[in-house]
Automatic annotation (TrEMBL):
Annotated compartments: Peroxisome
Main location as per UniProt: other
The organism of origin for this protein: Spirosoma terrae
Name of the protein in question: Peroxisomal trans-2-enoyl-CoA reductase
GO molecular function: trans-2-enoyl-CoA reductase (NADPH) activity
Length: 296
């Protein structure tokens, strides 16, 4: 979507950039000329992704470079290492994509305290630790910056069976708005993306495992009748991390094919056939005529 070289000279940190959506966004940022630090718990996964992204056949000559650093986002010392190594390698940091997450479906009453903590710590604590660390660096050095948080649609609606994730994503979303208000004066913007279903191994293994996958079609409840494509999310993420979105802050952009609209009172009427609509129309018009007569 963005023109070639649109992110040249920018350095972005992508948490969870070794897999799934973080990897797809990293690929696009590199193509647009950004340097990208990817970080997560598994160094071997990060190294393999870095190797793959640096040797892609269609990699433009002026594509950015990737740096892979092990980091558990629950550990501030490791986050500070990522920041200092990124500055050492690329000179500065312009953007942070908080994309790391942990999640699984479960009836909430089956969760141990530790299970709940694990999800909240990765998603909420990890997001505010990283944002705080990078934000302090930007403010101390008078550098304008941009934070993009990968949220979910249920951060606003709530959802059963993923309650720790909903609690944590909801908290991160309100942090996005709160800090957008507070740090705007430093030239720091914060936005969020709320994606619907985008197939990744990490999400599908934990949110759509067998036997659900055999009996449920997640596209049925999506008005556009399909799941998202990684390129569609990468386009939006690159735009929100770029200077082209320079007047957007505190915003959450939903990208879900309309799935979140499912609450609409009458949406289920798509099951009504054309013949049934003929009958319904006649019935309503008859009621209209009757009520007019009553008024005469
Ligand atoms: C429609 C299509 C989709 C559509 C999807 C569309 C919307 C999706 C929106 C959001 C999507 C995402 O976030 S997708 C992101 C998915 N990706 C990931 O989750 C990647 C990272 N995940 C992980 O590493 C693991 O899954 C995770 C458990 C979170 C962390 O692993 P750890 O090794 O740190 O932790 P563990 O020691 O294994 O587990 C910690 C505790 O959690 C408990 N635990 C783990 N799994 C459990 C389970 N299934 N049920 C109960 N409890 C569980 C353990 O027993 C431990 O508690 P004790 O027994 O008490 O010790
Ligand atoms: N796929 C989808 O349909 C949707 C996804 N999302 C969101 O998109 C983002 C990416 O998810 P997706 O690509 O699907 O799934 P992935 O499982 O591929 O991505 C999650 C990433 O988080 C990293 N991670 C997990 N725990 C930690 C930790 N403690 N410290 C650092 N990194 C960690 C993982 O790497 P490692 O294991 O090496 O640490 C992994 O790279 C998440 O924020 C998710 O909530 C939102 C809505 C829908």
């Amino acid at each position: 979507m963005l023109r070639d070289g649109a992110m040249r000279g920018k350095t972005i940190i992508v948490t969870g950039g070794g897999t799934g959506l973080g990897k797809s966004i990293t690929r696009y940022l590199l193509q647009l000329g950004a340097n990208v630090t990817i970080c997560s718990r598994r160094q071997a996964v990060l190294d393999e992704t870095a190797r793959e992204l640096m040797s892609e056949p269609d990699r433009p000559a002026d594509a950015g470079e990737v740096l892979a650093i092990q980091c558990d986002v629950r550990n501030p010392a490791e986050i500070e290492q990522v920041i200092s190594q990124t500055i050492e390698k690329f000179g500065k940091i312009d953007g942070l994509l908080n994309n790391s997450a942990g999640n699984f479906i479960s009836p909430t009453e089956r969760l141990s305290y530790k299970a709940f903590d694990t999800i909240v710590d990765i998603v909420l604590r990890g997001t505010y630790y990283f944002t705080l660390a990078v934000g302090k660096y930007w403010i101390e050095n008078s550098i304008p910056g941009v934070v993009l948080n990968i949220s979910t649609t249920y951060a606003s609606t709530g959802s059963g069976y993923v309650v720790p994730s909903a609690v944590a994503k909801g908290g991160a979303l309100i942090m996005t708005k709160s800090l957008a208000a507070e740090w705007g004066k430093y030239g720091i913007r914060l936005n969020a993306i709320a994606p619907g279903p985008f197939p990744t191994k990490g999400a599908w293994d934990r949110l759509f495992p067998e036997p659900l996958a055999s009996v449920m079609d997640p596209t049925k409840r999506i008005p556009l009748k399909r799941v998202g494509e990684h390129g569609e999310l990468a386009n939006l993420a690159a735009y929100l991390l770029s200077d082209y979105s320079g007047f957007i802050t505190g915003e959450t952009v939903t990208i879900d094919g309309g799935e979140v609209l499912a609450a609409g009172e009458f949406n289920h009427l798509e099951q009504v056939s054309s013949e049934q609509w003929d009958m319904i129309e006649q019935s309503i018009k008859q009621a209209n005529r009757a009520s007019k007569k009553e008024g005469q």
